[in-house]
Design a protein that fits this description.
The protein is mainly alpha-helical. About 55% of the residues lie in helices and about 5% in strands.
Length: about 600
């Protein structure tokens, strides 16, 4: 290599050409590279017919690295596309892709090469780059009429490289794979914006496309964002032959239509989509959404009603009433119908059903429409219901209505200690809303958990899981796993079986994390006798050796005690959630953590 660079520095073209005749392959290869640095093409062109395939491949590769303006016969490179050695074929195609120019003779040779190696993953990229270089865009577009599926596929890839909107001509191709590749070309990454309308329009075509194609067609409409696009997506969801998963994808895109997320729904690319006015979208979707209410698919029904509520679409009251009164429909669907109806009649019906979740939503609606009737109903719930969630909702609504007279007996029961523990927090919060009642919860003396004792019972595990996964302040999954999946972090212990512990332990871990640190997770700092400082999580200590682990490193570090000058106190990295979150959130987290009861591997046997 040093000799090559020195000869290049001297401009010794003759010496390098002489080295091409060496009996040593390595010397010949370095001579080729040196001539490439000097942009001397002709000797390398002559080597394309060499007996040694390595020399032929290196000559083709180096020719491909020359400037596009280099005056050599690209037809000689095209001849190597028929070389018996696949490495030579590949390098010749790569070279044509790098500095090839439109040339009918070269194009014919390239098409023969494509036909001889259809669907070959090793060659596909080189073929596409070469075709993009040697064929004008109109000729590439005309290949949509080729009988050869291999030629059509490579033409799509070439048009994608050129970001040519003519790739849309391949969307109706007979081959599902080519249609899918054309959709990816138009949609993904930087995409081809001028072709997005054609991809969006293809959603109306009943051709049996792959899921990857359909997702991009739906999302092309979503990205364009106009009212006709929304209607097209809704009509696709209504088609009987639409696969269930794609029907739900279409409806999910409609639910996000007016407020697009920053990341693309399909490829995760950063998009700069602005909020869309809902009025025109709602008008376009009014008829399709009403038709969706006739579906027998419960998920479709739920999303249709959610969509109507989000866009303030007026739904057909008879259809909504039928949904509300259908005992076979899921509570979420019936509740969504109730929310959309927003009538006193619907609220009165809902509070008398056997479905707890529907009664709760009915009571909430009743309190907003008829506070007087709601007071009577909520008092009845508190006196007769055995459902904790229903009674908790009743207390919340009584607090909102400032019904101090109805809350007073429950405040008194709380003070006497004669109230179910799951209602303690709800009574206290409801009393505070009235502005006149003061709830006096008996708190155990000398108990460090006393300030949060009302958080032990009565939480909502579903809401607790949402807090655990998504709360921006708590950031639970930034430190913990909750199962054996890849989600979460190993900074803190895996909580998959933490629910096997009692609730006091869970509450203490949340509110007073320094009290009890899980083995192996206390942060410890050691000052060594040589003046260096070592930090990590205390994994263990035995035989005069302290073992520290760094979650970011595969191996732990063992430090003999006789090397330590000063030892700090092990501290938990867990922030005190009792100081960060409202008590209701703490209660819900306790309820969720109590559900994590996975058995250990040993227990599973």
């Amino acid at each position: 290599l040093k000799a090559q660079l020195e000869l290049v520095a001297r401009g010794a073209t003759g010496t390098l050409q002489t080295a091409l005749t060496s009996t040593t392959r390595l010397a010949r290869v370095h001579a080729i590279w040196g001539l490439g640095q000097l942009e001397t093409a002709e000797p390398m062109v002559n080597l394309l017919g060499d007996a040694d395939p390595v020399i032929r491949a290196q000559a083709a590769k180096t020719l491909g690295q020359l400037p596009r303006s280099s005056p050599f016969d690209r037809g000689r490179l095209a001849e190597r596309l028929a070389d018996p050695d696949p490495q030579v074929q590949f390098q010749a195609a790569q070279a044509l892709g790098n500095n090839g120019m439109p040339n009918p003779e070269v194009l014919r040779a390239l098409l023969v090469f494509i036909d001889s190696q259809p669907d070959h993953p090793y060659f596909r990229s080189a073929q596409a780059r070469a075709l993009a270089a040697v064929a004008p865009i109109p000729e590439l577009a005309a290949m949509s009429r080729e009988d050869s599926a291999a030629r059509r596929m490579i033409a799509v890839l070439a048009l994608r490289l050129l970001k040519a909107p003519e790739v849309a001509g391949f969307l109706p191709d007979a081959s599902p794979a080519i249609r899918a590749e054309a959709a990816c070309a138009i949609h993904d990454g930087d995409s081809i914006p001028d072709a997005l309308p054609a991809l969006a329009a293809s959603l109306a075509n009943p051709v049996d496309n792959a899921e990857s194609f359909v997702r991009r067609a739906i999302n092309a409409n979503f990205r364009l964002g106009h009212a006709p696009n929304a209607e097209r997506v809704s009509r696709y969801a209504l088609r009987a032959e639409t696969p269930p998963a794609m029907r739900l994808e279409a409806l999910d895109s409609l639910l996000a239509w007016t407020n697009p997320p920053p990341l693309d729904r399909v490829d995760g690319w950063r998009r700069h989509l602005t909020e869309r006015p809902s009025l025109a979208i709602a008008e376009a979707l009014r008829a399709p959404v009403n038709e969706l209410l006739d579906s027998t698919d419960q998920e479709v029904l739920e999303k249709a009603v959610q969509l109507a509520s989000a866009l303030k679409i007026t739904l057909d009251p008879p259809r909504l009433n039928a949904l509300l009164r259908n005992p076979k429909a899921p509570a979420s669907v019936r509740g969504a119908a109730l929310d959309n109806l927003k009538t006193l009649e619907a609220a009165r019906y809902a509070i008398e059903t056997s479905e707890e979740a529907l009664r709760i939503r009915g009571a909430t609606l009743l309190a907003s429409l008829d506070p007087g009737t709601a007071r009577e109903h909520l008092a009845k719930v508190m006196a007769q219901s055995t459902s904790i969630p229903e009674r908790q909702t009743a207390l919340t609504l009584l607090g909102d209505l400032k019904a101090a007279d109805l809350l007073k007996p429950w405040v008194e029961r709380l003070a006497k200690g004669d109230l179910p523990a799951p209602l303690h927090l709800d009574v206290a919060e409801a009393a505070a809303k009235t502005g006149g009642l003061a709830a006096d919860l008996p708190r155990p003396a000398n108990d460090p958990l006393s300030p949060w004792i009302e958080c032990l019972e009565g939480g909502d595990p579903v809401r607790g899981k949402d807090l655990f996964l998504n709360h921006i302040g708590a950031q639970c999954v930034a430190c913990h796993k909750y199962d054996d999946s890849k989600g979460g972090s190993v900074i803190g212990p895996n909580l998959k079986a933490v629910g096997l512990r009692d609730r006091r332990y869970l509450l203490e871990a949340l509110t007073l994390p320094q009290t009890s640190i899980a083995p192996g997770y206390g942060a410890l700092t050691l000052t060594l006798k040589d003046g260096s400082v070592v930090s990590g999580q205390l994994k263990g200590e035995s035989g005069g050796v302290i073992e520290l682990r760094d979650p970011a490193q595969p191996a732990s570090r063992k430090i003999p005690a006789n090397q330590i000058a000063e030892r700090g106190t092990a501290m938990s990295l867990m922030p005190p959630m009792g100081l960060m979150l409202p008590k209701r959130d703490v209660r819900d987290l306790v309820a969720y953590l109590a559900t994590l009861r996975a058995k250990s591997t040993k227990e599973k046997g």
